[in-house]
């Protein structure tokens, strides 16, 4: 998922962004309400996480303006203000959910999944499958032919992207932008290294290869023709 985090506390933002990225999500961060509103209006997101107390423009104002401009992206409001009246204000401003600080990160992840599932019931897939390779996105579990495969976070993110584009040719640029969040070529062999590691885990001990190199184009995850 693509997530926008609007949080001015740099330490809290770093913790949240790091955790979301390690969970396989693409994350943008805004440090104040004005920047957050600009990003929210100009870029498509699956969900936004908005701190209530922000400089330049408070979180409720950000959400109210987004809704007035027709943005329907699900919003989870984070706040240290946890009284009933505070939560009601947040929901009336246009928030879809309200989570008080401090919070358990696992609960935040679960709330995000619920919000996205509610807003796009036909688009959210939590299980992916290509041939006998299966991925459970919620449990972060990979199984091939009944055998569980242990992947590192970046390998999991790479596999998830390839499986969501199964049968298609995925270019190096697509991988750099969507898996590594690079919008430039770092001139390294990082993709080759991770593709090699992933192939060794999902193909090496199995009869049918699924991860294919398309010369001069990129990679494709598919069953053999």
Summarize, please:
The chain is an alpha/beta fold and 225 residues long. It folds into 2 domains: 2-119, Response regulator (Rossmann fold, 3-Layer(aba) Sandwich); 127-221, Winged helix-like DNA-binding domain superfamily/Winged helix DNA-binding domain (Arc Repressor Mutant, subunit A, Orthogonal Bundle).
Task: Give the overall average pLDDT.
Answer: 89
Biggest sheet overview: 5 strands, parallel
Helix content: 25-40%
Biggest β-sheet: strands ordered side by side in the sheet: 2-1-3-4-5
User: How many domain units?
Assistant: 2
DSSP summary: helix tally = 8
Low-confidence stretches: none
SSE succession: EHEHEHEHEHEEEEHEHHEE
Distance between the termini: 30 Å
Radius of gyration: 19 Å
Category from helices, strands and their pairing:
alpha/beta
The CATH homologous superfamily of the largest domain is termed Response regulator
CATH architecture of the largest domain: 3-Layer(aba) Sandwich
Q: In total, how many beta strands?
A: 12
């Amino acid at each position: 998922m693509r997530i926008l985090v609007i949080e001015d506390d740099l330490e809290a933002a770093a913790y949240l962004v790091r955790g979301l990225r390690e969970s396989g999500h693409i994350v943008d961060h805004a440090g104040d309400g004005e920047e957050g509103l600009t990003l929210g209006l100009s870029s498509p997101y699956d969900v936004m996480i908005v701190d209530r107390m922000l400089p330049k423009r408070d979180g409720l104002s950000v959400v109210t303006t987004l809704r007035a401009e027709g943005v329907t992206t699900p919003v989870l409001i984070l706040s240290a203000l946890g009284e009933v009246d505070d939560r009601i204000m947040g929901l009336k401003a246009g928030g879809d959910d309200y989570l008080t600080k401090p919070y358990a990160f696992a609960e935040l992840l679960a709330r995000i999944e619920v919000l996205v599932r509610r807003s796009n019931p036909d688009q959210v897939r939590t299980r992916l499958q290509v041939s006998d390779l299966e991925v459970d996105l919620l449990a972060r579990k990979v199984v091939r032919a009944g055998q569980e495969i242990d992947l590192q976070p970046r390998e999991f993110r790479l596999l998830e992207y390839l499986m969501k584009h199964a049968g298609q040719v995925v270019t190096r640029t697509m991988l750099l932008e969507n898996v590594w969040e690079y919008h430039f070529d770092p001139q390294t062999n990082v993709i080759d290294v991770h593709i090699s590691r992933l192939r060794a885990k999902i193909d090496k001990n199995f009869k049918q290869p699924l991860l294919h190199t398309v010369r001069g184009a990129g990679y494709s995850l598919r069953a053999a023709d």
